[in-house]
Amino acid sequence: MNETSDGLDVNYLRIPGIIENEKSLGKLFSSYKNLAIENLHPDDRLLLVDPNKSATLNEESPVFFLRRPQYVSDGEKINLQNFTNKRKHQDMEDTNPRSQLHSVERTFDEVIDPRNKNRLQSLIHPRKKIKAVKAWHFFPDTSTFDQVFHSLKFVGSASLSKDRPLNEQLGQVSETDSTSVNASILTSLFKPIEINPHNKWISLYAVTDKLSAESFRKSFNSIKDDNIVNRHVIYDHIKDFDQMFRGHKKLFEDFAISFDDISDRAFFVPIVGRLELKKKRIVPGLVDMVNRTNYAHIRMDLRNPSTQETAIRDSRREQYDPVNYSSIQEE
Fold it and tell me: Which residue stretches belong to region Disordered (predicted)?
């Protein structure tokens, strides 16, 4: 240390007793070891332990500076790391397919539980104004799993509501009352026709008589034979459509649901694909061939299936519902 004002070289450390006799500095030396430890708080005495050694405080070499900032920062890192891990674990559970499936199943279990009075309130729709008013038990309709179902869509000018001649022929309702559908449409037939791989279409057949169509619809939907009034009906050729089939990649990607309000049950059947029907344009050279290929009328008779037909249907249903249908029918 230099004293520049007088030009003298002064070193304060050479003055005898300048550090030993100074109380605030003297505690750093070994002669003040016991005094320094005794004046510390009991919780702070643990901070004198060298973290690099595992010896106790009595056997530890003298370390007389506090390590509180180091320990506090380490503790904060550990707590933050634990919180981050818990948050990541919670996020993984929220995005885990099994956890999502469990949450959905638990929600539906609560909804169908009759003991839960507020069961419908647990169903929350993304739109705030939409609320659940009723719940049904959801089951597959295994009785029809031997059949193949498609959804039909009339595209463009092929729409039944826009085709006035067809509308008048079938008695189809107008666009203003499109919610109701008459019996001629509900009992209609769609027959695929193929002349060659490049000439395919679908023909529409329907019962044009309104009374016959309505009685046949009731007979067709009746379960008991006693209620069947009209067992025979004649379908007339109505129109031909070009088709485009769009199949679904998965079995249950699309399905149709029928509701039974009496038993609070809903039954679904898988839809294998969608048929888009467009107005057919026939090449002039194929008009005669198309007319010869189409049937003018189709006679439909209602009857019970034969034993062989029932066995074929049961074998197909067993792929989805492993039940021995033959034993049930014998009983």
Answer: 306-331
